[in-house]
Amino acid sequence: MNSNFRTEIISPKEIIFSSEVKEVVIPGIEGEMTILFEHIPLITFLRPGFILINNNEENFFVEDGVVEFFENNLTILSSKIKRFKEVTKDYISLVREKTLNQLKEENLNDKEKYILNHKIEVLSNLNI
Fold first, then answer.
1. Most CB contacts within 10 A, which of 10, 35, 96, 111?
2. Which of 48, 45, 27 lies closest to 96, judged by CA?
3. Coil, strand, or helix at residue 5?
4. Is-above-0.85 flag for pTM?
5. What pLDDT score does 126 carry?
6. What is the pLDDT, as a whole number, of residue 36?
7. Which of 81, 75, 65 is nearest to 115 (CA)?
8. Inter-axis angle of helices 89-103 and 110-124, to 10 degrees?
9. What is the pLDDT of residues 26-43, one digit of tens each?
10. What whole-number distance in Å separates Cα of residue 116 and Cα of residue 1?
11. Number of C-beta neighbours around residue 121 at 10 A
C-alpha cells in the first residue's frame, strides 16, 4: 500500500518543492505537528520555524505562512520561506534585526509579540 502523499511548497514567485512524501513536520501556530498519510483535514497558520520533510531529507526555514491538508494533498503557502541550506549568517542577522525593530513598535497585540519573540528564539538557536 502506498503511504505517500503529495506535498507542495509554494511562494508567490515559484513552486519551491513538489513531490510525494511520507512525512512532513511543520511549525504550526499551535505547535509543531507531523503530517502523515490519511491525516485529518486541516487548515492552520505557520509560525517561525522549520519544515522537515522525510526525516530531514529536505528542510526549510519559514517565517510565516498557511498550511492546508486535504485528501492526502499538503499545500504550504509562504512568501517568507527558504531552503535551509540557503540560510546564511547574513540572512539570519538581517531577519533578526528586522524582527527586533518590529518588536519596538508600540501598537503590537499579544499575538504579534508572541510570533516575533518566537522568531527571535528560533533564529538565536541556529548554529550557522
1. 35
2. 48
3. strand
4. yes
5. 82
6. 97
7. 65
8. 150
9. 999 989 999 999 999 999
10. 42
11. 11
